[in-house]
Amino acid sequence: MSELHVDGPLRPGDRAPNIVLDAITRQGKIALDDFRGHSPILVGLFRGLHCPFCRRHIAAQAQLDIALREKGVECLTVVNTPIERARLYFRYHPLPNLLAASDPERISHRAFGLPNLEFTESETEWPRKVGMDVVTSMQVDMPGELSEPMNRIAAADLLNQKDGYEITEADERMIATGNGQLFGQFLLDREGIVRWSFTEVPEGGRRMFGAPTSQELMSAASQVAG
């Protein structure tokens, strides 16, 4: 398996690597090669479940699962959360038909070329490192969830409180090594070729904690399925 994709995240036209991970929502392993030759697949490579933004992105992807399957497109959610912690979370927060895998070492993220940001005090060299002065200046606006736009750190703390999400020792281990992991979603065709993607990497950090709209995802799926 390749390590970090040298030119950044995999792009349309690139062949996705095979990854083999522990399944969360069923027993055994999940491999991307299982889907090659059978169906397109939307692969969501998220941070750990400790990230409230990613929990919402995961739920949004899961809500499209039935519509995507009607087009013949499968979905796989990958989280940087140890297997037992992840299984416990989804036991109490079930998402129907969710196919999910645990990747606490972030093997899949590196293979797909997603950087793990280093946080610094004031030095920014996107997407390798970012200064906390830049992070705290970035405002996130989530009407219905936040009363007003606020910086990402304050927003994450507030959303965790709102969700009643308690950070465990397992979460703390993931935060210590992968809090700067950027996330991405990659739509692969039947042969495992990337046909569409969304990542936090472009635009110098302005995409951080953002996500594609359901319309974008469904439009991309329609083209791959057709």
UniProtKB/TrEMBL annotation:
Limits of the Thioredoxin domain: 10-226
Gene Ontology molecular function, alphabetical: antioxidant activity; oxidoreductase activity
Pfam families found in the cross-reference section: AhpC-TSA
CDD domains: PRX_like2 (cd02970)
Descriptive protein name: AhpC/TSA family protein
Domain of life according to the entry: Bacteria
